[in-house]
Amino acid sequence: MSDTTKLYPFVIPQFTPKDYSSFFLAGALCCTISHGAMTPIDVVKTRIQIDPRYKPFGFVSGTRYLIANEGPSALLTGFGPTAVGYLAQGGAKFAGYEYWKKTFVSIAGDQETAVKYRTAIYLGGASVAEFFADILLTPLEATRIRLVSERGYATGLVSGFTRLASEGGVSQLYAGFLPILCKQIPYAIGQFTVNEFCHELAFRNMSEETKKTMSDMHKFGISLGSGIIAGFAAAILSHPADTLLSQINKGHGPSGSMVYRLTTLAKEAGVKGLFAGLGPRMIMTAGLVSSQFLMYDGIKHALGAPPSLEIHKE
Q1: What is the pTM of this model?
Q2: Which residue has the higher pLDDT, 4 or 225?
Q3: What does the angle CA 304 – CA 310 – CA 314 come to, to the nearest 5 degrees?
C-alpha cells in the first residue's frame, strides 16, 4: 500500500429494509421535485432537438417563440409524466446505487481493494442501479416526449399514456428503452462518479481538524459545487443519446432494429445535430443534479437514515 494512502477502520454498514425504504423515498422526492421544477427548460430543450421550426433558436429565443405561439401554459407540457416517472426512477436509482455500491464493496473484500477499485465500484453501482430504474421510467418518458413534441396529442398523463399504449402497445411504450439506457446510464455515471470524486478531492486537501470543525455553510458549498460539476458531466455524456431518444419517441428514423434506427439517426444528425440543445440542457442538469444531492441528503437526515458508504482515498 502506498504511504500516501490513509485508510480508516473498514466497516461495511448493514443497511436494513427500513434504511432502503428511506433511501428510496429520499431519492423519489428529490428527483420528482427537481425534474418537475425543470419542466419548462426541458420543454424548450426537446423542441430545439426535434422540431425543425426551433432549429435556429437558442434557449431564450426558443422560449419566447414557444410562448408567443402556444402560450405560457405550453411550458408545463408533460409535467404529469415527468413528476410520476422520476418519482419511480429516482427512488430506484438512489436506493439502487446505495445497494449496489455496498454490494460491490463487499465483493472487493477489504478496504485497500475497495479504495483501489473505487472507480469501478462507482461505475458499476451507478450503471446497474440505473438499468433497473429505467424499466420504470421508460413508458412515462415516452409519454412525456410525445406530449411535448405533438401539440394536442393528449390532455395529460393518463390520457397520453392510455393513447400511446392503445395505439402502439407495450412495444411502443418501450421503443425507447435501449436509447434511454444509452442516455441514462452515462448520465448516472456522470452524476454519481463525478460527485464522489469531487467530494474526495475537496476533503483530501483538508486536515482532520478542519473536517471536524467545518461549518454547515462550508459543507453546503462543497455539496453544491460537486453537484454542479457532476451535472455538467452528466449532461455532456448523455446528450447524444438524449437527442436520439427524442427522435425515436417522435417516430423518426427508418424501420428496422433499434440499433439500425439509432445508427441511421446518428449519421443523419451528425456531431452538431447530436449536441443540439446542449447549452440549456447543461444548465438544467447542473440544477437538477446539485439540487437532488442536496435534497437527498436533507431528506435522509430528516428520516433518520444512516449516511452513505464512503470509500474515498484520503
Answers
A1: 0.81
A2: 225
A3: 135
